[in-house]
């Protein structure tokens, strides 16, 4: 597996992966999102400051992360590659990129909270997603 900076040519693969990975969480949204909406949103988020890296295997995009400031905005792995250590590898990459710490928000009803807690992040406040309504929780990673 290789982690490299996002390229514009990755857009279709990243949007499809993001959508499939989100669906795999089983978290219901008040307003479902389509691949086309994610494809449109992605360049807008990059323009607002996201720095994006993709995980590739044999030239196929199998995961991605986006970071803005000290926030891990997104970490998604293609469903067929989940539970193989790729998420940990990407999270460790973020820790190396943000050695002073970072925070993130994730869905409460997914497997992500268990993953982040196992990887040393600290659970903070819970609320509801402002756009989609599902319960969310903020995590923080502070190096020891």
Task: Using brief descriptors, characterize the structure shown.
single chain; 144 residues; alpha+beta; seven-stranded mixed beta sheet; 4 helices
Structure overview:
- This protein is α+β, with helices and mostly antiparallel strands and 144 residues long.
- Helices cover 33% and strands 33% of the residues.
- The chain has four helices and seven strands.
- The chain has a seven-stranded mixed sheet with strand order 1-2-3-4-5-7-6, with helices on both faces.
- A hairpin with a 2-residue loop joins strand 3 (60-68) and strand 4.
- The longest helix is centred in the first third of the chain and has 15 residues, at 11-25.
- It is globular, with a radius of gyration of 14 Å.
Overall form: globular
How much of the residues is beta strand, in percent? 25-35%
Q: Helix- and strand-based class? A: alpha+beta
Order of helices and strands: EHHEEEHEHEE
Distance between the termini: 28 Å
Biggest sheet record:
7 strands, mixed
Strand order of the largest sheet: 1-2-3-4-5-7-6
Number of helices: 4
Q: What Rg, in angstroms, do the CA atoms define?
A: 14 Å
DSSP strand tally:
7
Helix content percent band = 25-40%
Contiguous uncertain segments of 5+ residues: none
What's the rounded overall pLDDT mean? 94
Q: What is the topological layout?
A:
Elements (H helix, E strand, L loop, with lengths): L1 E4 L5 H15 L9 H14 L2 E7 L2 E9 L2 E7 L8 H12 L4 E6 L4 H7 L3 E7 L6 E7 L3
Parallel strand pairs: 4-5
Antiparallel strand pairs: 1-2, 2-3, 3-4, 5-7, 6-7
Helix pairs in contact: 1-2
């Amino acid at each position: 597996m290789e982690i490299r900076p996002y390229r514009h040519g990755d857009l279709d693969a990243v949007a499809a992966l993001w959508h499939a990975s989100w669906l795999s969480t089983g978290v219901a949204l008040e307003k479902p999102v389509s691949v086309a909406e994610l494809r449109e949103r992605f360049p807008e988020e990059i323009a607002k400051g996201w720095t994006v890296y993709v995980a590739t295997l044999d030239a196929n995009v199998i995961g991605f992360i986006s970071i803005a400031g000290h926030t891990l905005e997104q970490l998604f792995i293609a469903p067929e590659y989940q539970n193989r250590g790729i998420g940990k590898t990407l999270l460790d990459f973020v820790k190396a990129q943000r050695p002073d710490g970072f925070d993130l928000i994730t869905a409460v009803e997914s497997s992500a909270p268990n993953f982040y807690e196992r990887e040393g992040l600290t659970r903070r406040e819970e609320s509801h997603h402002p756009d989609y309504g599902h319960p969310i929780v903020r995590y923080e990673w502070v190096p020891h």
